[in-house]
Amino acid sequence: MPIPKNLNDAHLSFDCPGCKHPIIRKGSWFKVISTFRCSACHKTLRLGYPEKLRIFERHKHLAATSGRECNG
Predict the structure, then answer these.
(1) pLDDT at 66 over 70
(2) How far is CA 8 from CA 4, 17, 34, 39, in A?
(3) Is 60 part of any domain?
(4) Residue 50: what pLDDT?
(5) Domain span at residue 60?
(6) Which residues face 37 on adjacent strands?
(7) 26 near 8, Cβ under 8 Å?
(8) How far apart are the C-alpha atoms of 38 and 31, rounded to whole Å?
(9) 38 assigned to some structural domain
(10) Is 2 inside a domain boundary?
(11) Looking at the domain assignment, is residue 42 inside a domain?
(12) Please, are residues 38 and 16 in contact by the beta-carbon 8 Å criterion?
């Protein structure tokens, strides 16, 4: 399953598994990053393809839900 392109410019969030600090970046950042450091606890995190898919799927559903609320 490919990562959707329509969320490249959307701000997505991922909670650090160590300290639960929210990491908020554009979808395009999540697509290309593989490891990064949490700015709160300084833990080095690895973000694999399955986790990236979960982030994008979760935000895709949130965007669909908020779109329905705005339209109706």
Answers:
(1) no
(2) 8, 23, 16, 22
(3) yes
(4) 95
(5) 11-66
(6) 44
(7) yes
(8) 17
(9) yes
(10) no
(11) yes
(12) yes
Rounded-to-integer distance, Cα 31 and Cα 57, Å: 13
**What's residue 8's pLDDT?**
94
For residue 15, give both structure tokens: 């909670």
Two tokens at 35?
A: 């490891």
Cα-based distances in Å from 48 to 8, 34, 64, 65, 69? 17, 6, 25, 26, 32
Residue 63: HSE in the Cβ half-sphere, 13 Å Cα cutoff? 16
Q: What is the distance between the alpha carbons of residues 28 and 7, in angstroms, rounded to a whole number?
A: 8
pTM for this one? 0.79
Start-to-end Cα distance in the chain: 31
- Token pair in block for residue 64: 């669909």
